[in-house]
Design a protein that fits this description.
Radius of gyration: 23 Å
Distance between the termini: 36 Å
Strand order of the largest sheet: 6-5-7-4-1-8-9-10-13-12-11
Helix content: 25-40%
Bound molecules: GDP-alpha-D-glucose
Amino acid sequence: MTAPVRPWLLPDLPVVLVSHRGPVSFRRDQTGARTASRGAGGLVTALTGLASSLPDAVWVCAATTNEDVAVAREHGDQAVAVALEPKPRVLDQADPADRPGDQPAYVKLRLVEVEQQAHDDFYTVIANPLLWFLQHGMYGLAHAPRLTRREHIAFEDGYRAVNQRFADAVVEEVTARGGRALVMLHDYHFYLVAQQVRERCPEAVLSFFLHIPWPGPDAWRVLPPAWREQLLNGLLGNDVVAFHTEGFARNFLLCAQELLGLPVDLQAMTVDLGDRQVAAHHYPISIDVAAIRELATSAEVAEHARGLREAFCAGDRQLVLRVDRTDPSKNIVRGFEAFATMLEDHPELLGQVTFLALLQPSRQDVPEYADYLAEIGAVVARINASYVREGHEPIDLRLQEDLPLAVAAYRVCDVLMVNALADGMNLVAKEAVVVNTHDGVLALSEHTGAHQELGAFAVTLPPVRHPAAGRRPVCGPDHGPRAAPGPPRGGRLGGAGKRPR
Ligand code: GDG
């Protein structure tokens, strides 16, 4: 029997990176000119640095806009070299000034075109919401999920079909590299790819990294046995399956044991398939500390920080911050309700504390996400109407993507609220602790991967109970950083910044 492969001992292999979203996506503006924008979200943040630092890497991702499709077709559905800095753009192969090696940062993108209906089924029915909700423990089983004929068709013609399409693209890229490559598959969209690639490229080394939680066997029993067995067997096509935390890796092994009847070794963290072993590892993902510090000291961030201080931090006033995609797993509505409870219990804070919510609308083609965004708007309007004092509204909700503004807010906030119901890691928490300059408080859900590293330096939030219920508030005169300047460091953003990233 072959022992598990250790991909990090194979530095010379070319890399084929696979994720649903890529680091750049293309559109047309009103004038008809092509535009390119950098992708948001934790996975893209985490992988862009990696992909742009490897000499022979290709990033396989979905062509999610019409213009992505146009770019892919112009290049015969082959990989396209894209410069990332100073602004993303397609490099012109015929122009010597555009040589990829001369760029400060570039990636090779293989944009995979998928038939619209198949992609909708794959994305808006199976990956989000079904797998996302299941893996974040968000279903109340009395009502959901409902696995009707629609979901069964979506699993076959959407999820399986798109995984097949991506497996074909990966096989082409591996074959173009002589059949030997390190394939790095990412996230819940692609549980079925490895098994298919292994059959056709037996010399490829296959690894999978999951950015979200992996729950224990009982959660997976919600799915029909044929589905969960396909998903697990698909993942076991990898040499290594990796997670943010040891608990998620252990849950995966328990699923292999209980749902597939396979022997597992919980000490060695392996599954025994007879002719080979699959390893389950955990790698708590890091942020790019140098890059976030550099951004935090840029002129643009300094300008934003000045504006935020003036608007929210004058005198004794304090700023509570959250930075999130509008994802129900981030528990945004409960966070606002908890803030309202704090204002109710501590009217002396009215006008003194503002909750700045920098939210990026996410997955609006999925009904559950569109509904959640509407709910966020409604709860903010209600709380602001109830607690407005002399023109000061307690919540400042901004639905926009603006990373420099978010980083400026990390710098000046007094409290960062991360109350996710569940989160594989949570990079926002890690970023804020590195750049905050206000001796702020990290209020961190115990159900984030980040809590394992930063919990000792945070105020721990149980995400379903109101954080304000039964305890003193995390801001205000009793807890405000400026009112309590000395030790202890526990709960302070600055103290956590000295921890592993
Ligand atoms: C998934 C998992 C896991 C924020 N505002 C903007 C912007 N951001 C960046 C942040 C941060 C990223 O987005 C969000 O990352 P998170 O980790 O907090 O959350 P998810 O998007 O849910 O990430 C998560 C992660 O994958 C990595 O494995 O930690 O558990 O759910 O880096 O700085 N980016 C841009 N504009 C903004 O306005 N471009």
